[in-house]
Amino acid sequence: MASYSPVSAPRHPFPVPAFELIDSSEMIEEETLPTYCAGKYYPAHIGEVLDNRYQIAAKLGYGVTSTVWLCRDIIQSKYVALKIYVHGVDNSPEIPVYNRINSEETDHLGKNFIRKLFNHLYIDGPNGLDETKAFSTVEKAEIETPSPSKVIDQNRTIYTSQILLPGNGFPLFSDFGEARFGNESHDEDIMPNMYRPPEVVLKMNWDCKVDIWNIAMVAWDTVCRKTLFDGRNSGNIFDDRVHVAEMVAFLGPPPAEFIKRSRVFSAFWDDNGVWKNLVPIPYITLGSLASDIEGEDKEDFLLFLRRALKWLPEERPTARELLSDKWLMKGLEIPKRV
Q1: How buried is 266 (Cβ within 10 angstroms: 0-12 exposed, 13-18 middle, 19+ buried)?
Q2: CATH class label, 193-329
Q3: Among 196, 285, 270, which residue's Cα sits nearest to residue 238?
Q4: C-alpha–C-alpha distance, residues 263 and 153, integer Å
């Protein structure tokens, strides 16, 4: 391991207070999340220096399990994005996944489209240790214009996230908090409710084909305002029975061999594979939900979805096969020479 003698850059002074103060009664950022608990979030402050190295310059975003901050590395004089996990997220696979990615000696082109992890550390929070991850450099960010903020008390301030202008370049994969290793067996619950594939909803073992189902969900979301599956019952509560009933409406009855793989199939079907009708099958189709979609490639788009949305995971295409789908390839064809 090469050694060097870094020359520390001076810390940037941040005016205090220099923020637009938000009324304390208004819920903002992570406070709006249904699972928000203040004590689980590290009370980061702009201008604070973590690990004697990373000076917090601006807030970039927030979520259920973390907040993300633009920091200035005062040792190497560059900008980084720092992800601070909430307290209690002890079993996240993100660090092991990044370690695996960094250890792989490969020329695969996909490695160029993954945000690299170059450091991780632990900081003391009010409720124990919070796992923190520093990702690869964010080259440009404005730290001169302070964000509006809400002061909770002398120890905690909620900052609003900076809006970063989009730049040129390819998008990068940068969140592996829910990643799994493919050589291990999985049956745990994953994904937001309405995005879960049938094998997850029905408590089966699952593999990488769950991602193919999810690609269809994300593709639909890029075109439509509402998610493809709703899954809510008459009480506006998400209900797996409603979710599966919607799947049956779209895909038709599942194959008997698929039903038998489920540990909970008896909650939906009888021993002969007949729907118990505890929840009625709705009269909806993929075509009816897509009635407002316009464009000459609409039919190709729906065919793309139908390829990915299969009951049997083994009948879904691989990622490589889906990549060459007509809908994705449109506009990328190499023109024929005259």
Answers
A1: exposed
A2: mainly alpha
A3: 196
A4: 49
Classify residue 227 by burial, with Cβ atoms within 10 Å: 0-12, 13-18, 19+.
middle
Per-residue tens of pLDDT for the chain, all 338 residues: 222 333 455 666 555 554 567 777 888 888 888 788 888 888 888 888 888 888 888 888 888 788 888 888 888 877 888 888 887 666 667 777 777 777 777 777 777 777 777 677 666 655 554 555 544 443 344 345 566 677 777 777 777 776 655 556 666 566 666 677 676 778 788 888 889 999 999 999 988 899 999 999 999 998 888 889 999 998 989 999 999 999 999 999 999 999 999 999 999 999 888 999 889 999 988 888 888 888 888 899 999 999 999 999 999 999 989 989 999 888 666 555 54
Return the CATH class of domain 29-159: alpha beta
Domain map (residue ranges) of the chain: 29-159, 193-329
Helices (H), the chain: 94-103, 198-201, 209-223, 240-251, 256-259, 286-289, 298-308, 319-323, 326-329
Q: Using CB atoms within 10 Å of the CB of residue 175, give its burial: 0 to 12 exposed, 13 to 18 middle, 19+ buried.
A: middle
Question: For residue 210, which amino acid is it?
Answer: V
Query: Annotated binding residue at 140?
Result: no
